[in-house]
């Protein structure tokens, strides 16, 4: 099913779809995609652009009885752009305080971008700062942005995030203004970027559980299921855009 142009409807309609899609992704991950010992939880945003889906783990050593998922060395994620920075290796030498969730170690976050994440300078700066904070804390990140760049992110959110990590040229390809971006955080930070457009099918994107191990996030399948459940009365502006 092609990605719809969500700029055609009010933010509250995307919010409804967003909530359903978040739960569908959570259910798919907990339904067998995650290795034993890992769990995906949907958490409500509170006080800012916090993640919508959080993957937690019962602490286990990677490879010790882990089943499911894919190794980067043998099955690297298939994205249009891959980028890497070793700046984190030096930044991590600074002291910091970590507060961990009592249910388990935070491993990865999935963020489905909402219009509100881009509607002001403060909102977009907060979003970018939070993503970078996660990465520097060793938490892997997947960002799904189905909204075109604004004047505050003219080359998309990935460019703003990566500029906080390393200076590097990046421009969205013509005709592909939407961005899927997966980041792994280890000794280095690696970014896997897939630009898409309205009308495209969504590819699976990696959710990293370790810097070298990931599971595919079934974006297209979960999007289709959420769309099937979306109220028919609200679909018309998205299915039949003005000619």
Characterization of the model:
The structure is a single chain. This protein is an alpha+beta fold and 243 residues long. The protein has one domain (6-239). It is built from six helices and ten strands. The chain has helices at residues 11-33, 87-91, 121-136, 156-163, 219-229, 232-239, and strands at 38-42, 53-57, 70-71, 81-85, 105-112, 140-145, 178-185, 189-196, 205-210, 213-217. α1 (11-33) packs across α5 and α3 packs across α4 (156-163).
Give the topology.
Blueprint: H1 11-33, E1 38-42, E2 53-57, E3 70-71, E4 81-85, H2 87-91, E5 105-112, H3 121-136, E6 140-145, H4 156-163, E7 178-185, E8 189-196, E9 205-210, E10 213-217, H5 219-229, H6 232-239
Parallel strand pairs: 5-6
Antiparallel strand pairs: 1-2, 2-5, 3-10, 4-8, 6-7, 7-8, 9-10
Summarize this structure as a short list of keywords or feature phrases:
seven-stranded mixed β-sheet, 243 residues, three-stranded antiparallel β-sheet, globular, alpha+beta
Produce a short descriptive summary.
The protein is α+β, with helices and mostly antiparallel strands. The protein contains 6 helices and 10 strands. It has one domain.
Helix content percent band: 25-40%
Query: What characteristic shape results from the CA principal axes?
Result: globular
Strand order of the largest sheet: 1-2-5-6-7-8-4
Note the beta-strand portion.
15-25%
Sketch the topology as an H/E string, one letter per element.
Answer: HEEEEHEHEHEEEEHH
Task: Tell me about the largest β-sheet.
Answer: 7 strands, mixed
Tally of structural domains: 1
Look at the structure and give the mean pLDDT.
Answer: 79
Spans of 5+ residues with little confidence (pLDDT < 50)?
A: 46-51, 85-102
Q: What is the strand tally?
A: 10
Number of helices: 6
User: What's the N-to-C terminus distance?
Assistant: 20 Å
Structural class: alpha+beta
The value of Rg in angstroms is 17 Å
């Amino acid at each position: 099913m092609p990605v719809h142009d969500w700029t055609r409807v009010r933010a509250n309609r995307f919010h409804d779809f967003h909530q359903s899609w978040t739960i569908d992704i959570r259910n798919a991950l907990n339904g067998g995609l995650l290795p034993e010992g890992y769990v995906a939880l949907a958490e409500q945003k509170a006080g800012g652009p916090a993640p919508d889906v959080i993957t937690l783990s019962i602490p286990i050593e990677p490879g010790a009885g882990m089943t499911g998922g894919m190794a980067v060395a043998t099955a690297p994620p298939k994205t249009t752009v891959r980028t890497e920075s070793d700046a984190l290796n030096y930044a991590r030498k600074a002291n910091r305080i970590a507060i961990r969730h009592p249910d388990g170690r935070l491993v990865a976050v999935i963020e489905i971008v909402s219009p509100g994440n881009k509607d002001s300078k403060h909102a977009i700066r907060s979003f970018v700062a939070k993503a970078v904070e996660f990465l520097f804390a060793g938490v892997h990140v997947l960002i799904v942005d189905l909204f075109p760049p604004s004047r505050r992110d003219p080359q998309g959110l990935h460019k703003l995030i990566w500029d906080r990590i390393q200076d590097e040229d990046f421009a969205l390809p013509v005709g592909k203004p939407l961005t899927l971006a997966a980041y792994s955080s280890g000794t280095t930070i690696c970014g896997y970027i897939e630009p898409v457009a309205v009308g495209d099918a969504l590819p699976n994107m990696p959710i990293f559980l370790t810097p070298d191990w990931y599971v595919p996030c079934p974006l297209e399948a979960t999007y289709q299921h959420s769309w099937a459940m979306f109220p028919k009365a609200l679909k018309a502006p998205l299915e039949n855009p003005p000619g």
